[in-house]
Structures
1.
Amino acid sequence: MTNLKSKQLLPVGFYDLLFDEAEKNHHNINTVLQTFFDAKYRLIKTPLVEFEENFSCNEVRNSFRTTDIISGKNLILRNDITPQISRILATRLKDKNLPLKLCYVGDVLCARSEEVYSNRQQTQAGLEIIGCDEEKSNFEIVEVTLLALTKLDVKNLLIEFCLPDFLDIFLDEIAAKNKAELREAIMKKNISAIRQLSEDNAEIISEIALSNANLAQLIEKISSQIKSEKILAQLKKAQKISDYFKSDIELRFDLFGDSDSSYHHEISFNIFCKDFAYPIARGGRYRINNVSAVGATIYMNCLRQTN
């Protein structure tokens, strides 16, 4: 029996779900999808494997790869579903009128995982509004995502917003020297490096990078120290987000963001369950095939760790 068991181990980060756990996971996925359907999102299903040539270098990082024995071309096993939507928009959906409201669910496979639980097999359930750049679509994506999590009875939710354009605007407006180095230090929240690279503005930069619990107080400090219409316009965006959602859920603002928000522009967000270290959902606005889009992904495997 011991010898049989040793031959049937799974790779690190892959798992079986049995009985109650499998049924609960199935129920959670159906609940999320029904929430999307009720909000008029249409379901699409994409393949687990695609030609590597369909994606950019950044999109195939952290992917499992193999070779197609029929065509001889390199294949990747998807590590995210959102990039696949780009291909569908350029082909199967190219004649559809915009905006499009799409949703999806499926497993993705990551070659590596930085998380404690090391899930390399993950299930994503997401929704997208493609071809609409109106601010209300940003709010709709957040609201529907929160509604789905609420229907799953996820407790103690916290949402952290980022303004992905804010950092570059801020560095331009303060005429930062060593901009690339300072930007990297801010993204890594390296306070000692920030102090070395920006003597004049180190204090306010450090506070923006680290203090996100009291947005009104932070806006007041920034506005009193740096006079810039462009920065003020960004701060007004943050305040508008805060005013819209403040009665529904605990909010935080990481105005500068980090490397996870670099894919987005205008707005990005992470949703946390307070007792869990990693986001259970994330999203934001981005461009796909030169079209503005906004979307969010719920990580179903993370939900299994929270309840």
2.
Amino acid sequence: MEVFLVTLLNGLVYGMLLFMLASGLTLIFSMMGVLNFAHASAFMLGAYFAYTISLVAGFWVGLLVAPILCGLIGAGIEKFGLRRVHRNGHVAELLFTFGLALVIEKAVQMTWGLLAVPYRIPAELDFPLFSIYGTHFHAYRAFMLLVSAAMFGTIWLALTRTRVGLVIQASLTHPEMARALGHDVPRVFTLVFASGMALAGLAGVIGGNYQTTSPSMAVTMGPIVFVVVVFGGLGSLTGCFIASLLMGLIQTFAVVLDYSVADLLGKLGLEITKASPFGELLTMPLPRIGALLPYALLVMILWLRPRGLMGTRDT
């Protein structure tokens, strides 16, 4: 019971971190149709910006300023880059954002070095909030959960209950009609892209000191974020939220459960050995294949339901 509760809390924290990062990509990928391979780079930039600002003005100033800087960078990328290549189709956008991710990674390495930087949790939140069977749950993890929950509520209310959200949705689904009503559609696209990059930057501020702030963090988080967005379903913020929690829990529990698929089948009366078909894979312990489980689930959901868990259109 102790292991279950502790792992459950850790899985929720990691899952909500995934949501903070994936929510911005959901806005960009599902609404604009832009394959932004540089999205995880904004996550990395947010962590590095917050680290640099915290050295001078503290964590809380970095929490406010770093996402704004990422949003401004995103606005510049959309206005001076993506807008120019958009007319050439999605392949051109993909190549542009992929190259941009490489440029940002090299820029980070040239600016902050190749090694991880000592980005620390703020002292105000570096204390155990409560204990479960002797295991401490730190206040900073509760802060991460609070920020991510507030982010989910804010995005949902902004898109469904405000005039700005209605204009954004109208500009994305019926751009000609929105333009005829006097709305600046290109500016709306810039706003959406900048907001998505700012959300990724905020995730970097929150998650950079929870994990490790290094030049490899974009490469580490990028693939799993795309899995979350596609698994949850394009166009669905709720699906992104559910998929984030699911992937976070699966990866966390897979680390601590020393079982295999063969063990589960054995309880059902099916004996699996290494000599059986796919026996090597089925007898492999979950901690060794835990990182592959999200991608296996992605293949399964695309096979059974191509539009994703709660998507509104096929991927």
3.
Amino acid sequence: MQPAAAETSTPSSRVSLSGHLPGLDGVRGLAILMVLATHFVGGATAHTLLQRIVVKAAGYGLLGVDLFFVLSGFLITGLLIRAKGRPHYFRNFYARRTLRIFPLYYGVLAGLYLILPRLTTVTPMLAEAAKHQAWLWTYTSNFYLAYVSDWNTLTYVNHFWSLAVEEHFYLLWPLVVFSFSRSTLERICVGVILGGLALRTGLAWYGMSELSISVLTPCRVDSLCAGGLLALLAHRDAGAGAERLVRHARPAALVLGGTIVAVSAWCALTDLGVTTLHQVRDSLYALFFGAVVLLSLQPRPDALGRAFQNGALRFLGKYSYGLYVYHAILLWYFTETQVEARFDALLGNHALAMVAVAMTGTAISVAVAVASYHLFEKHLLSLKRFFETEVTAGPKARASVAAVR
């Protein structure tokens, strides 16, 4: 969820795959907005039919994590194939990822588990999570959650499971891209996508819980590879492949979206084949979000494409990594201190209390993420200039890749 460099771009008839891609900032912003909705609204207590509908709809915001995965796969794969063959391929990639991800991640863990307990008495939920913190320090929390199949054993930081999945991808994918040709990489991506579907389906039939399946790296890496496959196809024929993909993105999104609705309706109306169809739907989500990413790349965007360049979405996209890390910590604090019930008593209206929780949680999360970025993260990010991955000619000699997290 790392911000793209502030650099103006001029309209063109060609699809750009490097430099500052403002549409992808908007995609990132949409993804974090979905996650905020599912946590600050989707977890609320509903008292009326309308409230239940709102809470149910907000719960689908969890798919924002899938959108992040697809976007990460697309951007990281594109970056790697453009850097392949250049000096310091591995050093530059791992150094830049380390500077972006580790300071905030480990800084938060240090604050929660090393500093906070020395300053005050931690809450019972945080104390329980501290018993299992080794999984967090080693980026293996997703495997622990899969083993226990219980979100409540890692309260405050159970959302770090998705960061673990992405870190596993970042660790291995550069070696894969370095070792194989583009055509072979395309086949590998297809194989991983089909293999992920087969694995999830097999585990579901075996009786593994949906929670466990949803957090295991082998069961989620197909979404990252869906984005990777699109990046590989986009870079075909000196970038001409991107224009073909973008042209077909809208009809693909419509077909995939319609299929998802049909599968969901089938699952809601009958139990026939539901175990398999749930896993098929997860694969369809990844492909649908791939089409969404492509729509944001339109060189002359229509109304939908311009929506991804909306200032508010791009603002959220710029700070999305911090927002993702901090918001759920705040959410668990709200839960443990019964903030919703307090707003309910204060306002005398549960609907207003739900709105107040969502607005307060979002506002505080944004404020903390912005402060964290400007006071802490960006100073370490400035060191990325020593590990440039792309060099362009002209007055602006170095263009920053629109990168994830």
